[in-house]
Design goal:
The structure is a single chain. With 520 residues, the protein is α+β, with helices and mostly antiparallel strands. Helices cover 69% and strands 7% of the residues. The chain has a four-stranded antiparallel β-sheet. It has a two-stranded antiparallel sheet with strand order 4-5. It is rod-shaped.
């Protein structure tokens, strides 16, 4: 009517109030195109779910890591339990090993096609990617495997659990056995070293009598004692020499025989000496003391002899003895006696000094020998003690390792057992056909409606009278389109085709659902 359709700007777009009738008119105009987009998206999603999306079945087994609660307290400090803390990490390392994966290829039937080594590595990588190992609890291990074949998923999950337990048991037994064998070999080696060190120490001590602990202290004490004896002997020798010289000088000034006037004077001198001796004894002892009694008797005898001598002198008698007027000098006799004693002591002191000096010389030589052998003896003793300590420690460790090995052999320590065995999965997991089909139907409805909304909302062409009025163009009236008979027939045919397309889509979905239920 106006020639070229006028355009509007973004600000002149169709308002929301006029959008609903416009969407209905546009849907009627493009119903076939919208039905085609709906059918294409829905059928594409269905085909993707049927032929591209694989059904995934997951089978899992739960393993319980059980620790003996009775054995552990009894053998604490004597046996080492070969347990682990990160059970899931250990399980992952064990089941993803080359040995276990090779057996899994056999169990899963992949080796029936005799794949090459490269293909085997790819299959192992694929199996690792579909295997999940987790620890839902500290003492539980969950091993799950996903596969499009439920029977194979069950076999692989069951084989994983069984092989993990076998490998763990063998690894524990092998670890404890290797530890025991290693410690036992070290015990034998150090026993030989200890025997050799002991023999070397005994041979050295047999060749060197003074080579034993404490000899140096004994020798030093002996040397100090001998030095003290030598010094004392020298001091005594000097003192005795001085005494001997003094006695010799005194003896030279005395006469051996002295003359006396009478026997009376001799008796008087003896009487005075005995009286002085008696006085000294009475200062200490009583009158009944034997020495006091004897001295009194001697005094009595001397007095009687003195009286007899006085009587003889009064009668004018003379004695016939040559000693009446002469006698031996008692001081000279005493000095000779003391000099002889001093000379004997001097000879004994010289002998003791000579013996002490010879013993001191011998001890000094012994000290030098001990000092020379001290380094060798200390090294031999140190080697023996080190080997002895290590050998005794290894003996204790060997017994602990023996107990640990017996525990692992009898499965009394940390053990694994299947708590929840794997079963054949009956339903697939993850994305299934119904999920993909539902998403496809939702997208098949949403995409055409979205395209229709975008075309009606943001199309720059004038589609309503309100747009013209906003452009300043007066609108007198609106004339609806007039459909001829041919146009109505064509419209009915399009609607029939749209209904057929929608019916085919839903029929295809129902058929796919029925077939999948029959297979399940």
């Amino acid at each position: 009517m106006f020639g070229k359709d006028p355009t509007v700007t973004a600000s002149d777009a169709v308002p929301v109030s006029e959008l609903a009738p416009l969407l209905v008119r546009e849907a009627r105009r493009h119903n076939l195109l919208l039905a085609l987009v709906f059918s294409v998206i829905a059928l594409f999603a269905l085909l993707f779910g049927l032929f591209v999306l694989e059904r995934s079945y997951e089978s899992s087994a739960t393993i319980l890591a059980q620790q003996s609660d009775i054995i552990q307290p009894l053998l604490e400090g004597r046996a080492v339990a070969t347990g682990v803390v990160d059970h899931a990490g250990i399980a992952r390392q064990v089941i993803f090993g080359r040995r276990v994966m090779s057996e899994i290829l056999e169990v899963g039937g992949w080796m029936a096609a005799t794949p090459s080594p490269i293909e085997q590595d790819r299959l192992m990588e694929s199996i690792r990617g579909r295997t999940q190992v987790s620890a839902p609890r500290p003492n539980l291990i969950l091993i799950g495997y996903r596969d499009n074949d439920p029977t194979r998923a069950f076999r692989v999950a069951d084989a994983f659990a069984r092989l993990f337990i076998e490998e763990s048991r063998e690894a524990k037994q092998r670890e404890s056995r290797d530890a025991y064998e290693f410690i036992d070999s070290q015990v034998r080696d150090y026993h030989a070293k200890l025997t050799e060190a002991e023999q070397s120490l005994l041979q050295y001590r047999s060749r060197n009598v003074d080579a034993h602990p404490g000899s140096e202290a004994d020798v030093n004490a002996r040397i100090n004692a001998l030095r003290t004896q030598v010094e004392q002997a020298r001091m005594g020798l000097l003192e005795q020499q001085s005494r001997a010289q003094s006695l010799e000088a005194q003896l030279a000034g005395e006469s051996e025989v002295t003359a006396v006037a009478t026997r009376e004077s001799l008796y008087r001198g003896q009487l005075l000496e005995l009286q002085a001796q008696l006085d000294r004894l009475l200062l200490t002892y009583t009158d009944q003391y034997p020495d006091v009694v004897r001295t009194r008797h001697q005094i009595s005898d001397i007095q009687r002899q003195l009286e007899q001598e006085q009587g003889r002198r009064e009668r004018g008698e003379r004695g016939d003895s040559p000693f009446d007027n002469a006698q031996f000098n008692p001081l000279y006799q005493e000095l000779r006696t003391r000099l002889a004693e001093v000379r004997r002591e001097l000879a004994a002191s010289q002998s003791r000094l000579s013996i002490a000096e010879s013993l001191l010389s011998a001890e000094l030589d012994r000290a030098r020998r001990i000092a020379a052998s001290e380094g060798v003896l200390a090294e031999l003793t140190r080697d023996y003690e080190v080997n002895r300590d290590i050998y005794q420690d290894l003996l204790r460790r060997r017994e602990n390792a023996r107990v640990s090995m017996v525990l692992d052999q009898e499965q009394r320590g940390l053990t694994f057992r299947i708590q929840d065995p794997a079963v054949i999965p009956l339903r697939p997991t993850g994305l299934r056909l119904m999920h993909v089909a539902g998403a496809g139907l939702a997208a098949a409805f949403a995409v055409p409606l979205g395209l229709l909304f975008v075309a009606a909302r943001f199309d720059p062409r004038v589609r309503t009278a309100g747009q013209l009025e906003r452009l300043g163009v007066p609108v007198l009236a609106t004339v609806p389109p007039y459909l001829t008979r041919r146009d109505r027939v064509r419209a009915h045919m399009r609607w029939a085709l749209v209904a057929l397309m929608v019916a085919l889509v839903f029929g295809a979905y129902l058929l796919a659902y029925w077939l999948r239920q029959g297979q399940g």
